[in-house]
Design brief:
Largest sheet: none
Oligomer: single chain
Distance between the termini: 164 Å
Shape: elongated
Order of helices and strands: HHHHHHHHHHHHHHHHH
Strand content: under 5%
Structural class: mainly alpha
Number of helices: 17
Length: 309
C-alpha cells in the first residue's frame, strides 16, 4: 500500500491566494466603493466622476434616501429645502414639502405677527395651513385696530374682510372711533364726510346738530351776515336761532365798514384805514361779534396799539 505524499508548501502555493485577492480588490467598481462608504459625499463624488455609469440610477436612488434621512434628522425648514433643491422630483418630495410647510407654520405661530403669517401665505398660498394663517391674520388685524382705536384700521378691516368674523363689531367701532376723532377738532367738512358714510344710526343726530352749529359759527367768525340769514331760513328751530338773528343785524351794519377799511389797507392808505378801524371800535366796542372781527384785522395789519388805546 502506497503512502500518500504529504503536501508541502511552495513559493507559488503561498503567493497564488494573495495574488487572487489582490486582483479581486483591484476589480472593485467605483459604485461598489461608494456603496461601501455609503455617504452622501461618496455618492455625489461617484456621480460627478461617472456621469454615464450604468449604476447612476441606483446611486441616485440611494443618494435620494440619504439626503431625505439627513433632512429628517435635522428636521428644519432649511434641511427640507436643501433636499427639495437637490431632488425636486425625489421619492420623498411630498413628505418633505408637507413637513417643511408644517415647520414654517410653526415658526409663524411662534412669532405670531401679521408679517410672519403674510410671509407664510406668500410661500404657501394654498397649503394645508393657509386657512389657519388667514384666520390668524384677520384676528390680529382686528385686535390691532381695536387696541389703537383706529377708525382707519377698522375701515381697512372691513375692506379686506367684508365677510369677516368681526364685521358687525368692526362696523360699530368704525363709526364710533371716527366720530370720537372728529369730536376732538370738528369741522363742517369732516362731519360731512362722516355723514356720507353713516346716514343713520348712532351719533347721526348729534353730528347733524354739531354741523349746523359749526356752519353758523363759521359765518359769524367771518362776519358773513347774508349767509347767516340763509342759515336762519334752513334752521328755524336751532338753539342758535335767536343769537343768529341778533348778530346778523349787527354784522349787517358793521361789515361794509370793515370792507372799506380793508380796501384802504390794501391800497397802502394806512393812516386812513386806521381812522376807519378806530371808528368801528367806537361804534361796536360793546358788541362781541364785531370785536372778534376787529381784533383779527388789527393783528393781521399790526395796528392794534394804534386803534385800541
Amino acid at each position: 500500500m502506497q503512502r500518500r505524499k504529504r503536501w508541502k508548501p511552495t513559493l507559488w502555493g503561498g503567493l497564488l491566494p494573495l495574488l487572487g485577492w489582490a486582483l479581486l480588490v483591484g476589480c472593485t467598481s467605483p459604485y461598489q466603493k461608494a456603496r461601501q462608504v455609503d455617504t452622501v459625499q461618496a455618492y455625489k463624488e461617484f456621480l460627478r466622476q461617472n456621469p454615464n455609469s450604468p449604476e447612476r440610477t441606483r446611486a441616485l436612488r440611494r443618494l435620494d434616501r440619504l439626503m431625505y434621512d439627513r433632512a429628517v434628522s435635522a428636521d428644519s425648514v432649511e434641511s427640507y429645502s436643501l433636499y427639495l433643491q437637490e431632488f425636486p422630483r425625489g421619492r420623498f418630495r411630498r413628505r418633505a414639502k408637507r413637513r417643511r410647510e408644517a415647520l414654517s407654520f410653526r415658526t409663524a405661530r411662534r412669532r405670531d405677527r401679521l408679517k410672519s403669517y403674510q410671509e407664510f401665505l406668500e410661500e404657501y398660498p394654498n397649503g394645508q395651513y393657509s386657512r389657519d394663517a388667514k384666520d390668524r391674520i384677520e384676528l390680529l388685524f382686528y385686535q390691532k385696530a381695536k387696541r389703537y382705536q383706529s377708525y382707519r384700521g377698522m375701515e381697512a378691516y372691513l375692506k379686506h374682510f367684508p365677510r369677516g368674523r368681526f364685521r358687525r363689531e368692526a362696523t360699530e367701532n368704525y363709526r364710533r372711533f371716527w366720530w370720537e376723532r372728529i369730536a376732538k377738532k370738528p369741522t363742517v367738512e369732516k362731519i360731512d364726510r362722516w355723514l356720507q358714510v353713516f346716514q343713520s344710526g348712532e351719533y347721526v343726530s348729534r353730528a347733524r346738530r354739531k354741523r349746523t352749529a359749526l356752519q353758523y359759527m363759521t359765518y359769524e367768525d367771518k362776519g358773513q351776515w347774508w349767509l347767516i340769514q340763509k342759515w336762519m331760513k334752513r334752521h328755524p328751530n336751532s338753539p342758535l336761532f335767536d343769537r343768529a338773528k341778533k348778530n346778523s343785524r349787527i354784522l349787517r351794519r358793521a361789515y361794509p365798514r370793515f370792507e372799506r377799511a380793508r380796501r384802504l389797507m390794501e391800497a397802502g392808505e394806512t393812516r386812513r384805514a386806521t381812522q376807519r378801524y378806530r371808528y368801528i371800535y367806537r361804534l361796536f366796542r360793546r358788541r362781541d361779534v364785531v370785536m372778534k372781527l376787529l381784533r383779527r384785522d388789527l393783528k393781521k395789519y399790526k395796528i392794534t396799539d394804534d386803534v385800541i388805546r
